[in-house]
Amino acid sequence: MTTKAALTSQHIIEISAPIFNKNGYAATSISDITKATGLTKGAIYGNFKNKEELAYAAFKYMVKSLISPLSNHLRESSSPIKKLYLITDFYRNYYPFSKQLGGCPILNIGVDANHSNSELLQRVREVIQRIQDQLCSIIENGIDAGEISTNINAMQYAKRIDTMIQGAIFMTHTLNDNYYMEDTMNLIDELIDLKLKI
Amino acid sequence: MTTKAALTSQHIIEISAPIFNKNGYAATSISDITKATGLTKGAIYGNFKNKEELAYAAFKYMVKSLISPLSNHLRESSSPIKKLYLITDFYRNYYPFSKQLGGCPILNIGVDANHSNSELLQRVREVIQRIQDQLCSIIENGIDAGEISTNINAMQYAKRIDTMIQGAIFMTHTLNDNYYMEDTMNLIDELIDLKLKI
DNA sequence: TTTTTAATATACCGATTGGTATATTTTAAT
DNA sequence: ATTAAAATATACCAATCGGTATATTAAAAA
């Protein structure tokens, strides 16, 4: 059990993740990471094959840091329709939370990697897909449970909600104004009430 | 009339704008621009004070390239409510159009500049503000003209529509799937029908 | 305690970075 | 055609880039 290196790896990931998230892949240098961690290149390259592998690990960690609190939050109710409200509830507090981690990794890395790092872009796409699949499942469960109207397209509304959330994240972060997040969550709640809820 | 340098400046701007738009500020090098333009550093620095000034000019040009077609499109009707439909109509064709220019500059530069170039970020914010103000004016004109319900908050809906559009732009570009753009425009049309239209 | 191995630090590599000073060329004025 | 001025090309700068080879230190095994 190589405990020392594993701890160092984790430390490097945790420190570098917000840096990659803020600056993007190309604009983050190894020296940014050595400065922030207090370690040297030897420690970095002893634990990661190259900058790219570190960026993948950092992105994975950052997504986990932001998604697992959401998953936990959704456990507060087993009712699908209430889970939907728990989602908007979660995102009402998302701004200060994500800001502290350097922003939303899906937005930041999605934009950053789009014309440069196709491997990283692919990972962003997979995360978005997973989120939408999970959202779709909640809606489908709501239909099965008789909480949500049968004549709606679950995946369509999963994508609509996800798209609105991402728009709000962009606006709130870019304009440094939480209004967009709050009002968009109100709008999504209205959408749930009006179109989904029976 | 220094015609020669003005033409060269314009040429540099037009060529470098999509590069900055795709790569972001820090990840775009002067050599990227000399390669693309076929010019040398002497021509670049003879016409622009530094990389930053060129990036500003490139952003300004890119915004103009994407916004003025929208302005022109809106001239097709003088009715405020029809202008709203013309907006969703415009964005239904936005993906191939913006893709050819390296993406949406508001989204790309907004994310890119957020934690690095505060001057550039400020310019993105001003563009967003201008768009929302104009959208708000259209809604207000609609209220005055009796086309739009009097008991709605014009700026609130301007921001809601803008937020949804930006979310759709992000999703469509990141997932390379125009569905998000199309469906979001349908959703906005529904919103106009249901909440705004009298 | 000694030896072996794992982990980190240091020194260096060629390539590239933004930017500048100067040389050269192109354009315009005389 | 000659001269003056504007515009562009070239050569160079220190600093930094990602990455590697090796030296040193820290941990584990003997």
Textual characterization of the structure:
Two copies of one chain form a homodimer. By secondary structure, chain A is an all-alpha fold. Chain A contains ten helices and no strands. The first copy, chain A, has helices at residues 3-23, 30-37, 41-47, 51-74, 80-92, 94-100, 105-113, 118-144, 154-175, 179-196. In chain A, helix 1 crosses helix 4, helix 5 (80-92) packs across helix 8 and helix 7 (105-113) packs across helix 8. The relative contact order of chain A is 0.11. The model of chain A has no long low-confidence stretch (mean pLDDT 96). The interface between A and B is large, with 39 and 39 residues. The first copy, chain A, binds a DNA duplex (30 and 30 nucleotides) through residues 2, 4-5, 8, 29-31, 39-43, 45-47, 50-51. Chains A, B: Residues 6-66 form the HTH tetR-type domain. Chains A, B: It comes from Postechiella marina. Chains A, B: This is TetR/AcrR family transcriptional regulator.
